[in-house]
Design goal:
This protein is of the alpha+beta class and about 375 residues long. It is built from 8 helices and 23 strands. The chain is elongated, with a radius of gyration of 27 Å.
Length: about 375
């Protein structure tokens, strides 16, 4: 065969191969990488647009919910079908967005299932999957709750888009998750009102009496209203709670909340740690009463080197309340210690990423 013809054929074949490669590259670039988190972001954005157009359909009362299907959001033009977005005809997804009214702030919680390839994972289920134990350090099943006990180091969590760290105390009976604020307010008095029983300004250890707030209740309320610390995007996750504010004696041996929860304040957003919650976190069998020094042993709450007020008053002295500093102590209410709030977040929050360590905290949606 003529060398010139062979050369021409080679050039033609080479050009053909290059064209095929280019077409494959173009096809690969035009097909977006599948990202299930982005699909759920689109669902939330679409649901917000839907209810912006129909605000009267939003849940009216605290704790009420509404639910809108992915199919409806697509059919009414609020978002594109993920199969079209990702140019993947085999992609078949089903899901919904639940809207919850949390004290006037609206939480949009997506749930997504895409065949056998993806299913949304609730944070509470991830915690149980990662940390549930029957002995040693970890998450313990106690009745209908799950409590972190021992010197745990994988119960750190952050709100999406926020840098502030919290730690998980427990998963409540209703599935809500109870958080403890790592860094709160410094140098706050529990109370400094005049105490008629003591004839001094030593304070009164009633968190609320005759509809009058203690100083610390006012502090917590004002703190919650600080939008620089608690923006609406964070408040949307916070579920109102019944705050246990009963008093206990130094000799009290209960660790189940039965003493403190004899007196409750309903519909509270932020609260403070209870003495029994500190005791529950210890793995030491000698942590048997309020003032047992052994409660600081094998206790992640005992690692903080600041004096932190609890919400619990001393039943034997109207001018004293308990604080924690390694162990549980009683102090005059007019002393100034740290205020680290506790609160509950929605049972609908989903796990996004993280291993729960301080350097890699759990991130949720």
């Amino acid at each position: 065969m003529d060398k010139k013809i062979v050369k021409i054929i080679g050039i033609v074949v080479g050009v053909f191969v290059v064209l095929i490669i280019l077409l494959l590259l173009i096809a690969a670039c035009s097909k977006k990488k599948l990202d299930y988190n982005k699909i759920q972001d689109s669902m939330v954005k679409a649901a917000k647009s839907y209810y912006q157009a129909k605000p009267d359909d939003l849940p009216k009362e605290d704790g009420d919910t509404r639910n809108i299907k992915l199919e409806k959001l697509i059919s009414e033009g609020y978002m594109e079908d993920p199969a079209k977005t990702y140019k993947n005809d085999e992609l078949s997804c089903d899901g919904s967005v639940t809207i919850t009214n949390n004290y006037g702030n609206f939480l949009y919680s997506p749930s997504l299932t895409c065949g056998k390839d993806y299913r949304s994972l609730l944070l509470k289920d991830k915690l149980i999957e990662d940390s549930l134990v029957e002995s040693g350090v970890g998450l313990y099943e106690q009745g209908d709750e799950y409590v972190y006990r021992g010197e745990v180091s994988n119960n750190f969590v952050k709100f999406p888009g926020q840098n502030k760290l919290f730690r998980i105390l427990r998963i409540n009976e209703d599935g809500t998750i109870r958080l403890f604020e790592v860094v709160g307010l410094d140098n706050e008095k529990w109370d400094d009102r005049y105490n008629p029983m003591k004839s001094t300004g030593s304070g009164v250890n009633d968190y609320l009496i005759n509809n009058l707030n203690s100083r610390i209740k006012d502090t917590v309320k004002n703190y919650y209203n600080d939008s620089t610390v608690w923006p609406e995007s964070v408040k949307a996750y916070i579920v109102t709670q019944d705050l246990c504010v009963g008093k206990r004696s130094e000799a009290d041996i209960t660790k189940d909340g039965s003493t403190e929860c004899m007196v409750k304040l309903v519909n509270q957003q932020l609260g403070l740690l209870n003495v029994y919650e500190y005791m529950q976190a210890s793995l030491d069998n000698n942590c048997t009463s309020t003032k047992a020094i052994s409660c600081e042993n094998y206790n992640w709450l005992g690692t903080y080197r600041k004096r932190i007020w609890t919400v619990t008053g001393d039943a034997n002295d109207s001018s004293r309340a308990y604080y924690v500093f390694q162990t549980i102590n009683s102090s005059m209410c007019n002393n100034s210690y740290s205020v680290n709030t506790v609160f509950n977040i929605s049972d609908k929050v989903q796990y996004i990423s993280g291993t729960g360590t301080e350097q890699d905290p759990y991130i949720f949606r």
